[in-house]
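Sat 14:20. Reprocessing the chain from the morning session after the first attempt stalled halfway. Input below, unchanged.
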Amino acid sequence: MPAKPLAALTGGTGFVGSHVADALLAAGYRVRALVRRPDDPGWLEGLPIDLVKGDVREASSLDALVEGAGVVVHAAGKTSARSEADYMAANADGTANVAAAALRRAPEAHLVLISSLAAAGPSRDGVPVKASAPGRPVSTYGRSKLEGENELRSATRLGYTILRPSAVYGPRETAIRDLFVAASKGVVPVLAGGTPRIQLVYALDVAAAVMGALGRGARNETFFVAHPEPLDYRRIAETLAGLPARKPLLVPVPAALIRLAGLVVGAATALSSGPPVFNSEKAAEMLEPAWLCDVSDAEAALGRPFSTDFASGARKTWEWYLEKGWVRSDNIAARKRS
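Finished this time. Tokens:
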């Protein structure tokens, strides 16, 4: 079997990117990863990976990353930022910088961009969006991810695959984790009457989709990355409520309260130095009636990577959080007593 080519990776210190790094190593790739601080590589600590100091917003730092690579996986990006300019610098300009570096230093490389369902926007009238449909993002984040896709598509001499994950959960995740933490404390919110519908995707299935894209080769295609099963917010809450040994209380959180929280938290974090953890725009995204996408083409083309339904993935994630102490460990004792 021929040796795998060098894989250059951005975003490897983050949640999704770290799982991609694990998958690349498991498949036999030699991995070179971009990191801002080589002395603090996050989830890459201790892995046999070559570290290159840099930032996707700094074009001059990227040649050393992609030099001689046969594969470039661009997983870096911002999901929260203080301004549209910050989003665009990371998600649009950053992608343009990675593509330009690949054209200079690895023109034969297959570039896999991890974008987002937000680039396509929510589904209209509950009909799953197809990857071939024009993007209709409803947030600054979504617009920046779509612009990043367009930057890659304009690099016409570069072979690529664009992957658009839906909401990603799993080990190492720190945003959706709040719902698991709430469950461990005896309360699970049922958001917006429980009626909005979404598709979720387990982090390791995202990594499997990346490996499927690499196996398929660069064909300048775009795929959604999500488990095919739609879930409404009530079913998600009920699944989370089934995780602790002692079943938590389901608490309704109306849409009006979510909007108010977006206003209040957004205003409060506007006074801080960091990006907002929640704001009106994120609340509006959360309250869209449906974020559904058609993954039938991705299932067929990428080797059916979406094997983890939410019940199974939530249980695996919960066990990992317990092991790491990210949720209350007294549930372990409760389970042993029952």
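The longest helix spans residues 84-105.
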